Q: What sequence folds into this?
């Protein structure tokens, strides 16, 4: 598929490995914590550090894009081949908060290497996985003898991902023409395990709502009035309980409209993964599985739409008892969506479903938060095949396919740019994202470098 | 039925009315707030004041009974007739907290008379309704020419009713032989309205429980795990929702075992009361009625057992959203019981019902608080007829019959002493129990005096 000699890539990476790791360590020392205002200057410093490093790498265009919050970095390296496809890499340069007191064995902003792993905040999420693109594109050039990449390469590295990306969609809309691409590579995920390289094919979407219920004008005596007036806490509970049938299927009419069911091929691929339920339960800190009848645990979290109660509250919750009928109650729900579902349709369905279930005497208000669309790239999409092929070549074995149960700004890129979103990540579940002692495995990081060294040439052919 | 000349009673009451009201005002000035430790001395002072006043009234035995909390007052006036039945009057001398700042027009502990009503904390609940027994028994003696009451008369006036009567049951058990009676008159309730004197025939019982549910060891990500593990907030909601069927009947198996259904006669008596639903809803501060199919609102709150959600909580309840599967949830339920139901049976049924509905992976703990038994005196009980007759004589019209939806320590007296419990109250719903500007109508208070002036002679015959 690609004519890049693997041995040249290997040699190039080995030659530049120390400089690459030293540079990454320098970046990791910048505590670019977007959630903490006292790190605002650090987040800016991180953006400018990255822009300079990308220029040094060879990107002829590097810009720091301001937002009402933290800045993003944009870089572009056009291919000399005018017919080359355009690829946009997405990542982020901000990190989660971290402090020694949280349980870090060493300073989270002073990277150390132990047992072949770099320990530092952002090592895996996401600086390491952004940074492998710098050495990767150089290796691609070295191995192919090119002076420009085989694809028009763009990078967008935002600075607010760990704060919920509040300005990301607006940023992408404002710069849509600069960001235009034939494919988006999200470089902010992981793979199944060290022994099982995988490519993620999609993420679930998200609809969130809060249902406020008001009954009596104040808490009233459950002896004097109990059994004779509607109780908003009971109504909240009845709504939450009515969300699912006995097969744990969501009962909201129209909820499943458009859902793309799993193909036999994809079910087979999911079934091939070395899934250990008790290990999964340990990760979930849970004590049993429960979900939609007819689907496996992985199918449930990756490929099925769900409804969850994120919060419920009403009446007295303190110690002991209080015999009241509460004046109000609240129910916070979230719905995870899969390909084929539209957030606006789900919102309408939920609104109608809830409204029809609130009895006379209870006033209700339903409020939706910003929704996230699902994204899914079909298994036979040439760009997805290209990512899988390049990763398999780097790892020396065929890769599996996963999905991600969560939701993220990647879907905004798919939506705004109208391009397929692909996921390339070499992090493993034990890397401790958002936790103390976050790490990344150096060998896996270099497999990321190697994957991209093959990927641009492969994609140039695949997307031609 | 009774040979007490009404005119003598009227004259006696008119003659002593001013002294009676002055004495009551003196008592009302003592802020005997049992819930506030800085009023402990006032509660003790109130007990001793009452004991002295009962001695002055003529009770040969007056005692202040200590408890681990506030003291109770016991008084006894044996009848010279050794075959006379024994009657125990129950009331309380402690009051709810009150402060000008709560919306009182005048000092809550400086009684004032406006428009024929005494405004003060405790005027109706319960000092006024305890105090009418002092003038009542004197009027009884004056009108009958007796020197001792026609019944062996006992009074028990506790000091912790507004604090949940934590030591009341132990007090009654310790003094069961002193309190032994053929009938108990609870003098701590009210009647339908000024124009509709009524006698209460019973109170509902109470079983309270808290169900604690634990799922994941900590809140977990609803994207990564949603739809695949049991959610304790959902389980809490499902329990609460499963409490009732679509007819709003409680579904807990065995819950209705033993329930004495309303007789046609009692339903007719309830239907005769001048019930105005919109006025009732205003009192309930509610905007619609909802309850067990086949019963009226009054039947639902007075004569039907119910289940209510007093509190439910789990997961995120703050502003905005948080996409978690919560680690735990709590459900606080109360069940009101009617005659024929046993708290211990209901507790067992609820425990089994809940246990069977918690899925694998969720640990649950169910905790019951102290229960209260229901009490009900049959309409044809001679003592109830005697109370109704005496009250009708004082008010110059036949009285109706009500029940009380709430629960109270009266049931303990029925249980410990094995005597029927009767309710005699002249307070009206607008008297503002527990609210600012509590009041009692002087004319109604004197009707209370007059009722007891007839009652002891009537009961002596009725219970003979």
A:
């Amino acid at each position: 598929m690609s004519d890049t000699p693997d041995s040249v890539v290997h040699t190039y990476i080995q030659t530049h490995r120390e400089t690459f790791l030293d540079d990454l360590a320098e970046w990791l020392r910048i505590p670019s914590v977007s959630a903490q205002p006292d790190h605002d200057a650090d987040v800016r410093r991180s953006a400018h550090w990255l822009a300079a490093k990308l220029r040094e790498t060879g990107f002829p265009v590097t810009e720091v894009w301001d937002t009402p919050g933290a800045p993003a970095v944009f870089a572009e390296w056009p291919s000399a081949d005018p017919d080359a496809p355009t690829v946009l890499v997405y990542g982020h340069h901000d990190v989660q908060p971290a402090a020694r007191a949280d349980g870090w064995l060493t300073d989270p902003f002073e990277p150390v290497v132990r047992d072949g792993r770099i320990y530092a905040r952002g090592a895996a999420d996401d600086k390491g996985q952004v940074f492998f693109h710098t050495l990767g594109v150089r290796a691609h050039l070295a191995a192919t003898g090119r002076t420009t990449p085989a694809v028009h390469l763009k990078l967008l590295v935002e600075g607010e991902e760990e704060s919920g990306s509040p300005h990301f969609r607006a940023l992408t809309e404002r710069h849509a023409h600069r960001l235009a691409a034939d494919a988006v590579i999200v470089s902010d995920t992981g793979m199944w395990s060290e022994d099982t390289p995988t490519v993620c094919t999609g993420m679930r979407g998200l609809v969130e709502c809060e249902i406020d219920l008001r009954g009596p004008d104040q808490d009233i005596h459950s002896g004097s009035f109990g059994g004779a007036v509607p109780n908003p806490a009971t109504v909240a509970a009845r709504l939450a309980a009515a969300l699912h049938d006995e097969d744990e299927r969501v009962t909201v009419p129209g909820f499943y409209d458009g859902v793309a069911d799993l193909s036999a091929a994809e079910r087979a691929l999911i079934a091939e993964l070395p899934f250990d339920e008790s290990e999964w339960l340990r990760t979930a800190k849970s004590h049993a599985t429960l979900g939609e009848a007819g689907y496996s645990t992985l199918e449930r979290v990756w490929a099925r739409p769900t409804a969850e109660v994120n919060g419920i509250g009403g009446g007295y919750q303190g110690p002991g008892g209080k015999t009241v009928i509460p004046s109000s109650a609240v129910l916070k729900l979230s719905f995870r969506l899969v390909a084929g579902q539209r957030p606006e349709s789900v919102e309408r369905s939920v609104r109608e479903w809830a409204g029809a279930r609130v009895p006379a005497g209870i006033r209700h208000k339903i409020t939706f938060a910003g929704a996230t669309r699902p994204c899914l790239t079909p298994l036979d999409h040439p760009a997805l095949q290209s990512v899988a092929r390049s990763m398999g070549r780097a790892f020396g074995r065929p890769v599996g396919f996963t999905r991600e149960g969560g939701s993220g700004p990647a879907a905004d890129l798919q939506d705004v740019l109208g391009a397929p979103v692909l996921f390339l990540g070499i992090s493993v579940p034990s890397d401790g994202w958002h936790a103390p002692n976050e790490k990344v495995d150096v060998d896996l990081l270099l497999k990321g470098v190697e994957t991209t060294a093959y990927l641009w040439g492969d994609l140039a052919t695949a997307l031609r």
Remarks:
- The radius of gyration of chain A is 24 Å.
- The CA atoms of residues 169 and 412 of chain A lie 6 Å apart.
